[in-house]
Fold:
Amino acid sequence: MDTSNKKSGFYLLSDNTDAFVARFALATIAEKTLDIQYYIIHSDASGRYLAYAILSAADRGVRVRILVDDINMSGHDGNFKMFSQHENIEIRIFNPLSNRDWFRNIELLINLNRAGRRMHNKTFIADNASAIIGGRNIGDEYFDDRNNLNFLDLDLLTVGPIVDDVSNSFDDYWHSQWATPIEQLSKTRVMRKQLMTLRSNLKDRWHRLKNTDYFQSLKNASFTQKIINRRIDFIWAEADLFYDRPEKISSDDPDKTVHIGPQIMPYFEHAEKELLIATPYFVPGKKGTRWLKEKRDQGIEISILTNSLAATDVSAVHAGYRKYRKQLLATGIDLYELKATARPGQSKTRKLIEGSRHASLHAKYMVVDRQYVLIGSANIDPRSQLLNTEIGIMVNSPQLAKQTIELFARSSSLENSYHLRLDDSSNRLNWLTEESSGSTLYTTEPGAGLLRKLAVEMMSLLPIESLL
Structure:
């Protein structure tokens, strides 16, 4: 994985529409191979649009390999098996459950030690020449095409020598003992002629899309125009790829050769001035809280952005996070919680403007001393550290750091987030923000209903932190 002294190109995909366009473009221009690895692949609108592009690539001779984690595969075996009937498409399922029907939920409960360990990596690789890695899965909520929830997320489009490393990481998982061909798992009977029907349906859906506002937003997306004008302004820099080896799911030992954590920690240990952290699921634990305090005691400025209770899509994680807030604030760390109404980006999709205003942070990135930028799939929680496999790119670039810092600044502004404070006299939390009426100070979890607050109170009493 050594890419020292070899520069690769990086383009920040902070806009959800651009992120969809980038994936569709890679599938469309691929000539030889497409390697696709995700935790979640939904069969919703955006999932089907991408499926159309991927199937079209296979039709013109591109070899397609799709590796997807099994945790969200319930009821989807048939569609994936049908897709794999194409002579140029192979699909494998990572760490599959033996039960393919509703009994899988029972298996998950009684065999949690194995079944609870998941592949959380997210990569999209074309011709071993271009790749996208980051926080997004494949689904409408990641591409601003869902009414009730849209994630604020972040990916990197990469070209150059770093892509060889991304491809090697895919191969490690593809050839591992935990990747099983869909044909060996699913008992659903499919015939090749069903693939013709699937192809026709996907083509019809794509042509119907062309008459929608969402298609116009794709057509007018800034990244679309850059592709058309052949002016993708890559940032060229040295970088290293880090990823958990697939055997992590069978090992509790945080071995440096297997786990991503010990590999990237030296970058953060050597921080001298500033550390910015954005993570949707933030459960630092006692050890992590102690480490952050030590860094703050050394004079390092630390700012952390995560979800508010109103914005999070996983209340149980908020129950684990909330117990550490006062300790972090007492050390002088700046803690921000994203609002459910946040709009830090410039997306022009119809759903984002006319639909629900519920936003949720899903981006995972860190910036060290305005020099090093880590973007990937890992959260700061016990699950990413011990149970899930993860991937991330560390880029040595003040220019990319500047762009990422600007994204952090927009997201953590008082217009888009709550700045947490600790009242000196009462030792109670306050949430400072800007609203249409001006500066506003809340003394309880803002924007969240009573039932959600009670649910979090109850969950915080349960001994489940190691699973969060």
User: Anything to note?
Assistant: The first helix runs from residue 16 to 29. The chain has two domains: 7-228, 244-467. The radius of gyration is 22 Å. Residues 347-356 have pLDDT under 50 and may be disordered.
